[in-house]
Amino acid sequence: MSKALVQTIDGITYPRQVPMPAGMPEGWKAIEQVYGPTSKTAGRTYIRYNSLDGRHRKILGPKQVVQAHCQDLGIPWEPEYAKYESAMADRKAIESDARAREREARGQVEGEQREEMIALSRARFGELKGPLVLAFPGWKCRWDFMPETQQTPKVFTSPDGREWKLLKDLECMFGTRLTQGGKEAQDIIKMVEAGNANLTAQALFSEGSRRCK
Q1: Partners of 177 in the beta sheet?
Q2: For residue 17, what are the β-bridge partners?
Q3: What is the number of other CB atoms lying within 10 angstroms of the CB of residue 207?
Q4: What is the C-alpha radius of gyration for the chain, rounded to an integer number of angstroms?
Q5: Which long-range CB contacts under 8 A does 161-166 form with residues at least 24 apart?
Q6: What pLDDT is attached to residue 37?
Q7: What is the pLDDT of residues 109-163, one digit of tens each?
Q8: Quick check: 63 and 46 in contact, CB under 8 A?
Q9: Which letter does DSSP use for residue 213 in this model?
């Protein structure tokens, strides 16, 4: 029996044992391996499954694991595999809901709600313009001149390091914060007020566009 190739990539040594997917039968372990240097997919990882009793090794996927497990027990595999699929669907739904809540918490909403948040921001602050955003305390702007199109896209960077390429995304976040209220809403209001008062920083915006050409 050939010994699995041991490789260390980005500080991770393969093969290594990883958690089994939800809904899989007990009595198995998942082994993550990486394709070797001579493979067309060198560096990519894949998972194989071994039974703890040693009867099955290098099983390709969850469906094959369930089939082998049920064959050993002498029971139909289809109902057991349906349980795995149901567990995976539940997991995806939970993860999708969590991502949606995280996006909303960060002011990233979509569809009609996004337009509502943008409208709310504009009703409170007016339409955001580049000079005002540059004048926000601690904010920076990068001008990326593109000779082939003669255009100069701007990328704004907030104090926390997050980049904003579209002012509408920023307006959406502002509207969301105003809706949520509390300290974060007050922080947004104070930041916009400070930007409006900083006419010197606003004047630098057009100068930046001119110099990058």
Answers
A1: none
A2: 31
A3: 9
A4: 27
A5: 164/133
A6: 85
A7: 778 989 999 999 999 999 999 999 999 999 999 888 777 777 778 899 999 888 8
A8: no
A9: -
Q: Rounded CA gap, 145 and 63, in Å?
A: 52
Which residue type does 20 have? Answer: M
**Residues 10-23 pLDDT 10s:** 888 999 999 998 88
Within 8 A by CB and 6+ apart from 71, the residues are 77
In a 3-state reduction of DSSP, which class is residue 22? coil
The string of DSSP letters for 97-122 reads HHHHHHHHHTT---HHHHHHHHHHHH
* Residues present in the chain in total: 213
d(CA 30, CA 151): 51
Question: What is the C-alpha to C-alpha distance for residues 201 and 132, in angstroms, rounded to an integer?
Answer: 8
**pLDDT above 70 for 210:** no
pTM of the model: 0.53
Q: How far apart are CA 124 and CA 114, in angstroms?
A: 16
Backbone angles phi, psi at 114, to 5 degrees: -60, -45
> How many C-beta atoms lie closer than 10 Å to residue 170's C-beta?
19
